[in-house]
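chain below, 392 aa
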Amino acid sequence: MSRKFIPVFVLLIILAMVMAACGGQKAATPAASSGDSGVAQEPVIQTVEVVKTVVVTVEVPAAGAEQPAAPPAPTGYGAIVQRIKDRGKLICGGRTDLAGFGVLDANGRNVGFDIDLCRAIAAALLDDPEAVEVVAVSAAERGPALQNGEVDILSRNATWTSSRDAQWGNFTWIWFYDGQGFMVPAASGITSIEQLDGATICVTSGTTTELNLADAFRQRNLEFTPVTFEDTNTVYGTYQEGRCDAVTSDKSQLAALRSGFADPTAHTILDVTISKEPLTPAVPAGDDQWFDIVKVVIWGLINAEELGVTQANVADMGSSANIQVRRLLGTEGEWGQADLGLPVDAIAKAIQAVGNYGEIYDRHIGPDGLNIPRGPNSLWTEGGLIYAPSLQ
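prediction:
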């Protein structure tokens, strides 16, 4: 091929390649012309969003038509509350023999830490703290009394356990943190549980105390001989007679009963705790309204101490600058009183009747009673375990 034809040949090849490339493209649909000029417009690519519409048909009752009924309340809801209102008093399963918790005073009136809770609830629900009938319940009778509905509330230093919660009823809120210990004659020189190996130990039957005692000794490979009685007074009478080397129970009960001995100083409570004993009021199962009312009153008494509301100042605190105080006492807003069938000032009435949690403690368990330091029963703000949800 002559050199003068090479440039022409290369040009023809390039032209052919360009034409082939253009011919291989898919023609785009031209956009509509805006006039009659006949000038082709640039292709326009549009994105179309398709929206799927779902139509939901809701039947709305016609004006004046009967409205749908509210969901039914659970079976038993409100039954205990109505029973209490009908009879005009609260039946409280308690004690008449344990100083600090439930005992008859010189006038035959039942007083104590557990009893005051029943009076607070009666004040909140019935507007009368004296509308309470205290029924003495032994340790063995506690479960059946709840299961059979013989009492509206069991407020009798009962330990909350999983099996009792499943079998007895509904445990509400921990009222007193305790632990099991031992009391021995001071002259014995005993200071530890290991020194009780082979001892005879008095214990109340039908209690967690009995099981804890067996567990603690078995865990330490120690031996002991239990001397059991159903009646608490018999247990401690037997110990005082010297028929047992030691007696075991919740430490608060040991302190309470020792205070009634002829010479309390002749007996020592060991610095040993072998169990957790969260003492908790319980109610029969089946009435969530009543269950909630009892919890709310306990929460109200605890919150009152935390907020500085006392039996002496509650009448004036309704106008407090603190919003939480006003809500607690029912002078502003609400925290569910209507839902529970309680008056707006239910907690104020409870505090007027018995004071806040700290006042109840001091009167019966603290410096004015058994003189047991609060320890874990101090407010959470003071390093203790006493804590309650806010009422709001």
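The chain has a mean pLDDT of 87. The radius of gyration is 39 Å.
thats it, cya
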